[in-house]
Structures are given as structure tokens and as C-alpha cells.
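Objective 1b: paired records.
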Amino acid sequence: MSKKPRVCFECGGKGSVIGNYGIRKKCSKCDGSGCQYKTACTECEGIGVQRLTVTEYIYLPQGVKDGQKIRLHQLGHASDCYTSLPGDLLLTINVMESEIFQREEQTIKSIIPLSLTQAILGTKITVDTVDGKINIVIPEGTQDGDTLVLRNYGVWAFDPPDTYDPQELRGDHVLKFEVRIQKDLTEN
């Protein structure tokens, strides 16, 4: 491991020199870093940074959409220069599809199967939401294709202004009822 680096005598610490026809090129003595070591570090090859693959746990904000990009500060590549800070890492979000929910902007939709008896007589059932399970009342006489809107059970606003209550900007959850007729199993 070397001590403190010294300024490259060839480029004067700029990392580049003027070559033929007045064109700047990378300094060959310091490989563009602007500094040299008497004894180069074997781990970083004398440039002051190491190439590592790291695993980081990151927080994804609520309301993020498929294809959206998120910038993570200083988790990218560092330049090959002594004391440089790493750049930013730009992530493109790939949201997996759900077996239960479909998303349209801030609205969540799901299909709720009902038996013919439940649709005719009405009932209480438990449905899945992004906030967990809730109990709802199915009114009697529910038709195939009828919907029920659960206000403020949808997707949160991605980056709401500070002047708004985030709950006001939250989407809805639309339940679409699908009446399924079941055959009597005792029939031959």
C-alpha cells in the first residue's frame, strides 16, 4: 500500500497532455489520473479506487410505475482518479404482474367471483387489497359485471407535493363482480 500520491510530472496533475496538432490526450504516465505513486497499491493499481461488486438494499417509494427510473446517488462507478466520488446509479423499475390485481395509473382493479346464490341473496365476503384483507357487503341482486369502488384503496401518489395530504391523492380499488353458475354435483 503506498502512502500519499504525488502530482504527475508529465501532465502537472491534469490527467491529460497536449499531443500532435494541439489535441489533448490522456497522459500515458499516470493513465489520466493526474497523480503517481512511488509504489503502486496492488489492490487498486495505484489509482485510489477499487472495482467491487456490492449488494445494497434500497427503498422503493410507493407509487412507482413499470419503466420508471430512480437515481441512487453515489452507487455508480467511480472515475479512475484519486479521491474521486462514485457516480450515480440509474435503475429502471420492472414491476412484476400480480395474479390478483391489475393496475391502471393509480387505480387498482380486481375480479371477485361470486356464486349465483351470493349474487341473488347478497352476502359478506373478505377481499384482498394492497393494504390487506377487508370485509365488504355484497348487496342482494348483484349482476355479473357490476362494480364496487373502494375509495382510497388504490396506488399512492409517487411524489406528492408537500401541501397535499397523500391520502387525498391516493387512487381507488375497483372490484368487478363475476357471477359463476355452479352445476349441481348430484345431477347425472
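Objective 1b, second protein:
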Amino acid sequence: MIKTRQAVSAILALMAIGMAGCAASPEEIAQHMPIAIVNAEAGLGLKGYDPVAYFTDKAAVKGSEAYQANVKGVAWRFASVEHRAAFLADPEKFQPQYGGYCAFGMSNGVVVDADPEAWTVEGGRLFVNNNGIAHALWKRDRQTRIDDGDRNWDLLAKLPAR
């Protein structure tokens, strides 16, 4: 078990070193093509997961079409009418950071899709990552990743919400 943990730590460290070279400069970030303000494949935010459940249930929960709401051209699904009402009362509170793109990628100045199952609520904010490895790397230095992600998100040109 200890050797397995050491091996995983070594792999994560090597990946972090390799990913460090992927970080983009502010000038490179600003040159990206405009991206959608919300990562919404087929118009669906968080791939149909309930954004409120991360906060209330502390779990990634699939939402239902029966409890769907549209906000600024994006459909959001919820597990209950109460979750939908909470979201509609304060969408900014529950929407994932960086439009639902990968928080680890954003901390490196790269726009990457995210998996709603790789998530963290930190400081009252929902962050999603592309996969378990990106999630583990992001969690190793959360505050620096958040600071870098916030700065990089502000630099990206975004398409207006519909």
C-alpha cells in the first residue's frame, strides 16, 4: 500500500512538472479565440448534473429534465424542485467556476472540457476538472491554482451569453 502511494505521488509529481511547460503566458491566453461563457455541450450546463447538489448533498448528482431551468441560453438540470428554486434565486452562487471548464487547465491558461464527477467545493465555489489526475494535481496546491485560474479566466475573451 505504501509503495503504491509513493508510486502515485511520483507519477503525479512528474505529470505536474510536465504540465508546467503547458502553462500559457497572459499574452498567449488573450490571443485565444473567444469561448462560450459556459461550457454547455448541446446547450446543457454541467453535462446535466445538478449544480446545487454539490453544495447541499456534497455529491455529484445527475439532474432531471423534469426539473430543468434555462438561464442565459444554458439549460441546467436539478434533482429536485427545491434545488431548481435555489439555483434560480442565485445562479452565480451555484454555477461552476470558469464556466464549467477544467479548473486545472484554466490555472495553466488552457481551456479544457471538464468531468462533473471530478469536483471540489472550495471557499463556497464549485470547481470541476477534466479527470481524476487533473483533479489530484489541482488539489495539491488549491489556492495557487485558484489564483492562477481566476487571473487566466479574466484574460480570456468570451462570447456573449445568449
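Confidence is low (pLDDT under 50) at residues 16-21. Helices lie at 2-20, 26-30, 53-56, 81-89, 91-94, 103-107, 132-140, 142-155.
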